[in-house]
Specification:
Length: about 180
């Protein structure tokens, strides 16, 4: 059983995975590297003057894997809430369980809708920590703002959801702050 399952491997899902795995959570990410980023040329990601979307994703996938997240090249076809846990079923028929679930499925809202979440023209309704109406279920990224989507916003959403999970688990507010190595 994973602590956190993330469905979607674009900037939203991978950013959440980065913060969670870096801070000791057992994280499994499902996705097939089909993010819209492969069509993008980024000039507007703060701190990176320019980069091909595909190159950005290659770095992101390596970064997340290095921190211990398990990236699975599989499509999720169904999600169920079973007691206190989530069960995720993939197209190959495998099922995986977790305490927390983050959906980062991009502009498609199939899984969010299948769980009965409230959806408007703007996307799935979430609070400022990207919590949904279902306990321990988060939706981040383009799914929450279909018409106004930027990579840096999705990455920020994922980070916010991860900090909320980490704060909940630790029982107090949590920041992931690092300092430079001592000379
Ligand atoms: C042509 C084009 C150019 C762009 N240019 C820019 C730009 O210059 N700057 C910028 O900031 N943004 C740009 N964008 C937008 C940017 O790509 C998005 O803002 C960003 O990809 C959103 O990230 P996300 O993680 O929310 O969703 P996505 O990147 O869409 O990721 C969702 C992921 O979830 C996966 N997924 C969905 N359902 C399932 C499932 N059931 N099981 C497993 N995996 C699933 C998808 O395959 C996908 O990999 C551009 C987009 C396009 C199309």
């Amino acid at each position: 059983m994973s602590d956190v399952i993330i469905i979607g491997d674009g900037p939203g899902g991978l950013s959440a995975a980065l913060f969670l795995a870096k801070n000791g959570q057992a994280v499994t990410v499902f996705g097939q590297d089909k993010t819209a980023m492969h069509w993008a040329m980024l000039y507007n990601y703060l701190g990176i003057p320019q980069i091909l979307g595909s190159d950005f994703m290659k770095i992101a996938r390596e970064q997340v894997t290095k921190f211990g997240a398990d990236l699975r090249d599989q499509l999720v076809t169904r999600v169920e809430r079973t007691g206190d846990a989530f069960t995720v079923i993939t197209e190959s028929g495998e099922s995986h369980n977790s305490k927390y679930l983050i959906i980062a499925e991009g502009k498609g809202l199939e899984l969010a809708k299948s769980l009965g979440l409230s959806v408007t023209d703007e996307g799935v309704e979430v609070d400022r920590d990207f919590r949904t109406s279902i306990d321990h279920l988060y939706v981040v990224g383009r799914s929450t703002r279909i018409q106004r989507s930027q990579a840096i916003i999705s990455a920020g959403n994922g980070a916010a959801a991860a900090l909320d999970i980490l704060s909940t688990e630790k029982g107090k507010d949590f920041n992931d702050f690092d300092t430079p190595p001592k000379k």
